[in-house]
Amino acid sequence: MSINLNSVAVHLCSQLLRSKNLLGSSVRRFSLTSKSNMRYVQYKNKNGGNQYLGAQLSIGGDIVDISSVDSSIPNNLVEFLKLGQSTYEKARRIIADSKSITPIADAIFLPPVTNGDKVVCVGLNYKGHCDEQKLAYPKEPMFFSKFSSVVVGPFDNVIIPPITNQVDWEVELAVVIGRQAKAIRPDQVQDHIFGYTVAQDISARDWQKSRNNGQFLLGKSMDTFCPLGPAVVTRSKVDPSDLAIKSWVNGVLKQSGNTSELIFKIDFLVSYLSQIVTLYPGDIILTGTPAGVGVHRNPQEFLKPGDVLESEIEGIGRLKNTISG
Question: Are 33 and 50 within 8 A, CB to CB?
């Protein structure tokens, strides 16, 4: 991490906060998750009907219905986050009562975050991913983006469009912002994170590297190129600094890393990004991928129709996406 860059970011934050008279012991630290350490999901019933917001008490557990029990609670996690603490308290009470349950066998899991403002990605943020390319570790983070419309569910198909034949996998830990953040210090970041989920940064390497004049956006933003889920695990229930992160293609292990390899840690990344752009509830930040992607294998490997891609992060969950053409 660049000490000078970090110092600049902290200085900018401090100056802004002083100008608004927000520094000092009078600042109240707002807790997003102290009362609701759950696994939030968006889902539909297999028999059809509306989208719902619910919570699981464990990986693979049945779903405690939230939005269907109280009509004042949105069925969309982004809108839920915008309403703040009073709505979290309502959800906590509903979860504690657990009066309405949807069996997992009856649910279709949707992406846990939809209609967010932005999907931001970080490149070259795992030591192993740099090593496999024989690249020096970056001195500052490299950000790029995906269109938010390409987000799909944890078990949805990934569709390879006919314009590419170099579609690759990248399992990633994703941060979900819970509270608006602008020019915040690293030590303030946790108060603005709602939780974490599993993402796949599916990438058309030909479009990423040699088409579109080398700009990443189109290679990263083809339809269905961001499987997400199955749940957003609230931040107090997981330590993102030491999690096993893995992916498989057709049952063969391709990536096996640990979030301890992150070059730029989460608090720094969110603080740094907040100096540049306002982060809103429901914004998703993909934090990088470990070694083992297809393009850097010898020979190179790419996904093809019929392949099954699985992605897992310890304590958060597992995606399973079939590739179709």
Answer: no
In the DSSP assignment, the letter for residue 48 is -
Q: What is the pLDDT of residues 46-59, one digit of tens each?
A: 998 999 999 999 99
Q: pLDDT for 99-127, tens place per residue?
A: 999 999 999 999 999 999 999 999 999 99
**Segment (H or E) for 152:** strand 151-152
Q: Are 9 and 275 in contact (CB under 8 A)?
A: yes
pTM of this prediction? 0.88
Beta-carbon contacts of 138 under 8 Å, excluding residues fewer than 6 positions away, are: 124, 125, 130, 263
CB 271 within 8 A of CB 186: yes
- Asked if 225 and 146 count as a contact pair (C-beta separation under 8 A), the reply is yes
Where are the alpha helices (H) located in the chain, listed in sequence order? 3-19, 77-83, 85-97, 127-132, 205-209, 217-220, 266-274
The angle, 0 to 180 degrees and rounded to 10, between the axes of the packed helices 266-274 and 3-19 is: 50
Round to whole Å and give the CA distance between 41 and 113: 8
Residue 259 and residue 265: Cα distance in Å, rounded? 9
